[in-house]
Structures are given as C-alpha cells and as structure tokens.
Write a structure and sequence with these properties.
The chain has about 250 residues and is of the alpha/beta class. The protein folds into 2 domains: about 90 residues, no CATH class; about 150 residues, Rossmann fold. Helices cover about 35% and strands about 20% of the residues. The chain contains 9 helices and 11 strands. A 6-stranded parallel sheet has the order 8-7-6-9-10-11, sandwiched between helices. Helix 3 packs across helix 8.
Length: about 250
C-alpha cells in the first residue's frame, strides 16, 4: 500500500480478540483516501466508542484542527483530552517519497539515509554511467530524462524533491515538474550565484517568483557540511524540519 496506518497494539478500536469495531463503511472511506494518498484521521471517543472520520480537506475547518494538524504533522496516532473527553486520533498519513534527481556521490549517501527514515526513494538520472545498480544497490533507479521518468512516479504533496546534478538540462525540467506537483520540499544544489541564474532560467520557462522561492538553495541546513555524507545529513535534516515542524518554524 502507498500509505501506512499508524496503529498501536491496543488501539481502542481493536479488541484483544481482534474483532474490529470500526464500521465497514468507515473503513471503505479510509481505504479510498489512502489509495489516493490523502491523509485521513479517525477520531474515537474512548468512553463511548463514538467515531468520526476527518478527511484532509476538512481539517482546517474542524473544531479540533490544532490537535489534528499536530498529530498529522508528526505522522503518529495518539490520545488527546478535549473538554474532559479522552479521544484517540488514528492517523493514516501517506508514506513520504523522496525523488532524487542525479545519481551523484551525495545521492549515494542520501538514498540509504532516507530509506532508513521510512521514505520511498527513487533516483532519476539519464546518465547510465551514474545510474547503475552497482552504485545504488537496492534503490529504484530510472535512467531516463525527467520528462519521461517523472510522470509515472506520481510525485505529489507528500514528496520531497532534490535536484543535485548541477546540469540545467536535467535539473531544470525536473524542478518545473516539482512545482506543478506541489511537493512539500524542493531543494537544489548550488551556490547563491548559481541559484540566481537557475531562477532566471526557470522564470523564462514559466516559473513564478513564488515557485522559485520554494526552492531550498543552497540545499540543506547550514551545519558546515563538507563531505557527501555530511551534505546528505544536512539535506535530510532540512526535509525533516519541513515535514515535522509548524510551517512558521520550518521556513
């Protein structure tokens, strides 16, 4: 499945004898949202078993929006208490993806690190000398140009997108695709001077100032990283901050 439910062993919706008490129609709705990679939260009143389902589009208008947003951001199910009621929030969040454009040394360190954190990772690079199974064991590789490689990957809002080839012919069309798909994180390798030139090229191809502003460049948190492995750590730290912290803190 594309999404992984976060379900604790003694969740109040599941009896010890494994008899599920969630209504079948509710489960059907959950499965529809999960298949579409849309987050959904099942709220259960632990005192009386009453339940309601909150879909992603309804979170902002829900009375519990602050609590729901926090649990969804953390990607964890958990108990809360509101106005004397104990509620269990069962969070179904899409599995985060990481698409890496460029099968370079940084990518060799970044891919296994991201996989250890639970990301579905794909490396894209049309240069077959770089995108080889020997250099990326057990990592899905697509040795095609971005216009061919990216559409089948179904990049979406739960995708982190990293461009590290330093080749505009590869990075630029990939970044334009990331803008269109509303990725939660977009990063690109290069100095501020390089990024300024990149911005001019992308705007000439239809990108807006708002699109350019979404790119984290120079990529990664400023931790003084030098080696490819250290840069990979800085990139994953920045991606994690973007995913987990409140937006005002992650900016």
């Amino acid at each position: 499945m594309e999404c992984r439910p976060v379900l604790r062993r003694y969740h109040p919706c599941v009896r010890r004898e494994s008899r599920v008490i969630v209504k079948l129609e509710t489960l059907a709705e959950v499965n529809v949202e999960r298949a579409a990679r849309r987050p959904v939260i099942l709220i259960t009143d632990t005192a009386n078993g009453e339940q309601r389902l909150v879909k992603a589009k309804d979170i902002a208008s829900d009375a519990l929006r602050a609590e729901l947003t926090k649990q969804l951001r953390m990607g964890k199910s958990g108990s809360i208490e509101v106005e004397g009621k104990k509620l269990f929030l069962n969070v179904y969040a899409p599995t985060a993806k990481l698409v890496i454009i460029g099968a370079v040394h940084i990518s060799q360190a970044l891919a296994p690190l991201a996989r250890s954190l639970g990301y579905d990772v794909t490396v894209v690079d049309p240069r077959t000398a770089f995108a080889s199974p020997e250099r990326f064991p057990d990592v899905p590789l697509v040795a095609e140009w971005p216009d061919v490689a990216l559409p089948p990957l179904k990049v979406d809002h739960y995708t982190a997108f990293v461009a590290v080839t330093h080749d505009p012919k590869i990075d630029d069309p990939a970044l334009l695709h990331a803008f269109e798909r509303d990725c939660f994180y977009i990063g690109a390798l290069g100095s501020r001077k390089t990024h300024a030139k990149r911005g001019d090229r992308l705007k000439a191809q239809g990108a807006t100032d708002a699109d350019i502003a979404r790119i984290h460049a120079p990529i990664g948190l400023n931790i003084g990283a030098v080696s490819p492995s250290e840069i990979a750590v800085s990139i994953m730290a920045e991606i994690t901050a973007q995913l987990r912290l409140p937006k005002e803190s992650a900016a």
